[in-house]
Amino acid sequence: MTDSSRRYHITTFGCQMNKADSERMAGILENMGFQWSEDPDHADLILYNTCTIRDNAEQKVYSYLGKQVKRKHEKPDLTLVVAGCVAQQEGEALLRRVPELDLVMGPQHANRLQDLLEQVFDGNQVVATEPVHIFEDITKPRRDSTVTAWVNVIYGCNERCTYCVVPNVRGQEQSRTPEAIRSEMEALGQQGYREITLLGQNIDAYGRDLPGTTVDGRHKHTLTDLLYYVHDVPGIDRIRFATSHPRYFTERLIRACAELPKVCEHFHIPFQSGDNEVLKAMARGYTHEKYRRIIDTIRHYMPDASISADAIVAFPGETEAQFQNTLKLVEDIGFDQLNTAAYSPRPGTPAAQWDNQLSETVKSDRLQRLNHLVALKAAERSQRYLGRIEDVLVEDQNPKDSTQVMGRTRGNRLVFFAGNIQELQGKTVPVEITTVRAFSLTGNRVATPVATSPVCA
């Protein structure tokens, strides 16, 4: 179908992986002739790219669907698609719950969207959730930014954390070849993109499934090797990667990040709990002592590096003393940002079946106390920026103040300053920081570039 009068709208829930998948699916739809509609109520095709990590994200999907189902009763040719992790988890059960759906598709099928929609337009109701090998994607994503872009390097996850549905809904690990990754990055550099975030559900496991070993017995392809391989891609000024797993985070990787100028001094490494017994129950495969050693090693090589993470409170059986160990870890490390959540039982996971679930009251109390500490520590970390001159890659206009632009430091801290977006978008601008907040900064543009962060060994 290539009817350019048809419009589409995608709503994305959840992680960066979902955002990257949505960009790819948007690219497919536009290649089919669809045009983007800002208003879902004016779209002919609605796609919800879903997340099932937290129950509230899952329930939002059903809430959004309810409104569009009513529209479909009035507009029968409206196409309704549910993609992503809820689709993979529920499969045909989702059709029974919402029979008005035209297509239910898991994340492994994002590249097949056109084929699946052609089946829908032929009058079929389609469920695509079977495991597949993810072939190299030749579609051109519709990027939400003109400055920064996601590049998937590994799909799926082989971990078996007892609280997590990701292996069930995203499948086994499948690494892209270094050549395919570099080719995509080169195309982005030619298009004017300046920053790339390499993405994987478990990115430092990259390459384990690719063939070959080195003379010293390690995997031939690792995240470290990939960073060296893509570092000199023309046009790309900054490289980030996420999300890392402490089980695989090596000193060799840390040294590479310190040596490679384009790799930003920002690391997202979830710890989930500061208590070893809870980590064991989660099947995370490391101790809080190992996590501390990783952070200490990062700060040895890059003292000014920004550290962000994820944490879960009120995991089944977590005692107050064990929760205090999480607070102590946050206090000791001082994260620049921490994504927090109360434990939410997810279908098909071992922990959901345990009989030592904690009450919603306990969950709410612990989450509130952790968030309070997170804000305090983030505010403390922000103080180091006051009066410094930071290189800010300008991404967009401040949506709340049209006289300002916004961008990020190499440490991923959001910065606002006065400027013209037409002049500055995509440029790296030296900004003197005048105001600091827990999670963002404000400053003034300075006339000439000045060395900013401390030079690391």
Quick description:
This protein is of the alpha/beta class. It contains 14 helices and 18 strands. Strand 12 (306-313), helix 12 (320-333) and strand 13 form a beta-alpha-beta unit.
Structure characterization notes:
The protein is an alpha/beta fold and 457 residues long. It has helices at residues 16-31, 55-74, 85-90, 92-97, 113-121, 166-170, 178-190, 223-230, 251-259, 276-282, 288-301, 320-333, 360-382, 421-424; strands at 7-12, 35-36, 45-50, 79-84, 103-105, 126-128, 148-155, 174-175, 195-200, 238-242, 266-268, 306-313, 337-342, 389-397, 404-408, 414-418, 428-436, 440-445.
Structural classification: alpha/beta
Shape: globular
How big a fraction of the residues is strand? 15-25%
**Main sheet summary:** 6 strands, parallel
Mean pLDDT: 89
Give Rg in angstroms.
23 Å
The strands making up the biggest β-sheet line up spatially as 2-1-3-4-5-6
- Put simply, the count of helices is 14
What's the total number of strands?
18
In which range does the helix fraction lie? 25-40%
Low-pLDDT runs: 449-457
Q: How many angstroms separate the termini? A: 56 Å
